[in-house]
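Notebook, student rotation project (T.W.).
Task set for the rotation: take a protein with a known small-molecule partner, predict the structure of the complex, and write up what can be learned from the model alone. Partner molecule chosen: coenzyme A. Sequence and SMILES entered below by T.W., checked by me.
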Amino acid sequence: MASISQLHPLEINERTGEPFLRLPSPHENIIITPPRLEDVPAIVRALNDPRVYSTLAGPPFPYKEEHAIWWINYTKTPSDELLQELRQANDKDLKIVDGCPVRTLREVQSDGSDVFLGDVGCDRCGYPDVVDPEEKSRLTFTNDQLPPGDKDIVWCIGDYLVASHHGKGIMSAAVSTLVSSWMVPRMNAQQIRVETFLSNRGSRRVFEKNGFVVEETVELKKVIPCGKIIEGFDILWWRSSEKKA
Ligand SMILES: CC(C)(COP(=O)(O)OP(=O)(O)OC[C@H]1O[C@@H](n2cnc3c(N)ncnc32)[C@H](O)[C@@H]1OP(=O)(O)O)[C@@H](O)C(=O)NCCC(=O)NCCS
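Predicted structure of the complex:
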């Protein structure tokens, strides 16, 4: 009997051996792969574009090469470790893991090469909208202590796309693929919490179209790294049917 691939449902690029998830039609030329060191210039370009940085609270501004190098190491190390864990696993069933090894969006060209498009990554929720430091640290500590696969883990998703590709349905499809192909079956994700700026209708819609529901609106004036003042956050949750019950 053929043994199962612990990388399922990742596909493997025959030329490079790199694993990836493919977006569904009509975006099948877009894939999600692990981060690569060579992405530095493309990330620097994307995160210095006002159509991208003005709705992000996380990345520093201006975004320098050293920031991108730090980011790639920060994301590539867990991705490499997770892939190694999966390749070495000899469990009978598909192993439940504590993250997703792919997060970088790329557009595959007709010659088989690809172009960096952005990032869609999941992590344990860090409650960026919670102002009280003790409450924030209690929530993150409790969430971080839960073992891999625990149904009470609160996950979050962060994303951005290069401006040339906005408004084509790409991030809606990318979030759908990440959640349904990996987070639910391979991480046992049962609840996901995202925070979008009140003014960021596009991001809110991406999540609403994927079954997330605005459960709270936090009015909170905050200066983001580029100097812009935001007025607060919509807090959206996605819950599995077990969690909804
Ligand atoms: C937010 C972002 C990820 C959306 O990705 P996208 O691929 O352009 O979104 P989609 O094309 O899948 O659109 C999803 C929905 O949002 C709407 N939308 C997209 N951009 C919009 C905008 N700027 N203003 C209003 N609505 C917008 C679309 O019309 C669609 O809704 P509909 O089907 O009801 O018409 C992208 O614009 C981006 O990277 N922005 C900068 C970084 C960012 O804000 N990241 C999210 C942080 S929480």
